[in-house]
Amino acid sequence: MNLNEISERLGKVSDIYAEKFGIRRDDDWFVLKIQEELGELSAAYLKLTQRARVGQDSQTELDKNLRDEVADVVAMTLLFAKHRGIDVEQAIKDKWFRYL
């Protein structure tokens, strides 16, 4: 799958989530969700690196939690871009790959 196909599938999941919980997704919601997920990623990383309370989580659970939070940050960023009509693949080519 390319990023556009992934974004479309994420959009379907987001639609289900919004309908189930009665969420109104607007510009603010998308960008605030990115921030929320980034905070959760930071917390997962701190736990994984033993710089926060780990509780009863095993190393396997800590590793999975970090992967899950990376997925959430990427997914919410792609959903925000989709909402704003940004072609992420093209944006990456224009911004990053021009240096290659």
Give the CA-CA distance, first to last residue: 23 Å
Structural class call reads mainly alpha
Tell me what the CATH architecture is.
Answer: Orthogonal Bundle
Return the CATH topology.
Helix Hairpins
Task: Provide the helix percentage.
Answer: over 70%
Number of helices: 4
Order of helices and strands: HHHH
Overall pLDDT = 97
Tally of strands: 0
Task: Please tell me about this protein's structure.
The protein is mainly alpha-helical. It has 4 helices and no strands.
Summarize the structure.
It contains four helices and no strands. By secondary structure, it is an all-alpha fold.
Structural features:
0% strand, mainly alpha, Helix Hairpins, single chain, 100 residues
Describe how the helices and strands are arranged.
Elements: H1 3-21, H2 27-48, H3 59-84, H4 88-95
Helix pairs in contact: 1-3, 2-3
